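Journal club side-thread
Mid-discussion, someone asked how the predicted structure for our own chain would compare to the paper's figures. Pasting it here so we can look after the session.
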Amino acid sequence: MTQALDRIRVGSAPDSWGVWFRDDPHQVPWERFLDEVAEAGYSWIELGPYGYLPTDPARLADEVAARDLRVSAGTVFTSLHHGPAVWDATWEHVGQVAALTRAVGGRHLVVIPSFWRDDKTAELLEPRELTAEQWAHLTKGMERLGHEVKETYGLDIVVHPHADTHIDTEDHVERFLDSTDSDLVNLCLDTGHYAYCGGDSVKLIETYGERIGYLHLKQVDPTVLADVVENEMPFGPAVQRGVMCEPPTGVPDLEPVLAAAQRLGVDLFAIVEQDMYPCEPDKPLPIAVRTRAFLRSCGA
């Protein structure tokens, strides 16, 4: 008998509709995303890139409510390993997203570190490994961000390990968690990105359960991933190759991940994100419907 995952709140995001940018001719209009995410059976959404959905809080609240949806989080990219020099610019951007997130009822801010190589061209933007000083800037900066976001906007930040960033592999994720205060910073565990970088999501949940503040659900195609790793392909082209695939066809198996999350005994968002930029406009909805049915079969 499938376990009832009553602590898991399932949602989806613009990413599952091929949306990576605030404005791009390859992306579906925001109205279509909202219509289809509701049609697919999801109750919760993320805001996606700032400016893709309306940024006027009243209008956004009306559009979301009209489709019986609610907002779980906003998302920001940061480069805090560069130290205090980037704080003011970071805070200006974070403030925009956090204010909108709070205004429409969201409680989390997903924080993604900046890329060390160009997402499209593979050009090396900076070294893959941080220096000790940069690690200190990163961890202290994230703690400061967590404190300021909580104090100013009442939101919790959850840091998202991501392919081609400095928080990616098991070693990097554990170093980051061991170097930060759980009262200020916790993790958005993206099952697909963690598998992409060789990590075991169930192990991470069981080892660092108190630090898991949020989930992104996705899977990788192991055959495509092997080719991506062998050819040192950057993340953007890897996505175009189909490295992130429709569940339950890839890894990790999501049922044990969700069961491990349920055992933590706390309420957690689990937001579906199947990276597939760019994609044909008619592709996302059928996948979203099947994915929601699959997650229901897991008890979520």
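Post-session note: The mean pLDDT is 96.
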